[in-house]
């Protein structure tokens, strides 16, 4: 074979193998970067909508709440795109002749839906439930960014599975009291702005079993009231269980039975990690391993 192959053939063969390996690695890195790039995830892109709706104007300027347009966000797996009627509740009275709103008036007159382009559009094989996240202390801004500061809506995060799992590996970083879910400016507790939390003893969704306040509860002397039912007396005879809000004292108080006032045991938090760890336990947040288990879907 020495007459066929020159002595340099061995070096050439080794160099070819090394070059092939480098090409394969470079191709893998390039594809991995492409898969995470805005070209694929559409992160930061502002699609051309039929109507250039400004969240900044409506939320920050006019003070509209998220739930006014996205009515199903607390009860359904999807936030919901507002129907034309929601727009016309206001724009039948103001800006009635604005050319910018002609698609809205045309939709209202014809009954044809406006073809909005979804900014946060997950693949069909992904099941994401808005209700469970909202009711367990994940704020709108944690996923969607400061929507109240966006003249035109865009996706701030990739919303890829890797991004979701990173959150669930340390969910406490993003958890907040459910009363602050729609507060876009929420920055977590600090030494100057602490948060006090306590368990309410209330049955129902796990998030309702915790109450958090941003003012020192010791000044208001908050109390949790419970019914003290005499022995042998049924719930129907004693009345409705008293379940007031620890801070505001709101709740059903219809009862003929004597009540015992019990002071709520509030815990003070001056850092997000402390509060997040507490809420993770109280809200029973699933870990990343639990989410990636086959039993999540196949039960």
What do you see in this structure?
By secondary structure, the chain is mainly α. Among the domains are: 55-180, no CATH class; 195-231 and 239-270, no CATH class. 34% of the residues lie in helices and 7% in strands. The protein has helices spanning 9-35, 38-41, 55-61, 66-69, 84-91, 102-110, 130-134, 140-144, 161-169, 217-220, 235-238, 272-283, 288-291; strands at residues 195-199, 210-213, 223-227, 259-263, 267-269. It has a 3-stranded antiparallel beta sheet, with helices on one face. Helix 5 packs across helix 6. The protein is flat, with a radius of gyration of 28 Å. The N and C termini lie far apart (63 Å). The model is unreliable at 221-263 (pLDDT under 50).
Keywords:
three-stranded antiparallel β-sheet, two-stranded antiparallel sheet, 299 residues, mainly alpha
Draw up the topology in text.
Blueprint: H1 9-35, H2 38-41, H3 55-61, H4 66-69, H5 84-91, H6 102-110, H7 130-134, H8 140-144, H9 161-169, E1 195-199, E2 210-213, H10 217-220, E3 223-227, H11 235-238, E4 259-263, E5 267-269, H12 272-283, H13 288-291
Antiparallel strand pairs: 1-2, 1-5, 3-4
Helix pairs in contact: 5-6
Shape descriptor reads: flat
Radius of gyration of CA atoms, rounded to a whole number: 28 Å
Distance between the termini: 63 Å
Assess the beta-strand content as a share of residues. Answer: 5-15%
Please tally the helical runs, counting DSSP H or I stretches of 4 or more residues.
13
Name the structural class. Answer: mainly alpha
Low-pLDDT segments: 221-263
Strand order within the widest beta sheet: 2-1-5
Helix content: 25-40%
| Topology order in helix (H) and strand (E) letters | HHHHHHHHHEEHEHEEHH
What is the mean predicted local confidence, pLDDT?
81
> What's the total count of β strands?
5
Largest sheet: 3 strands, antiparallel
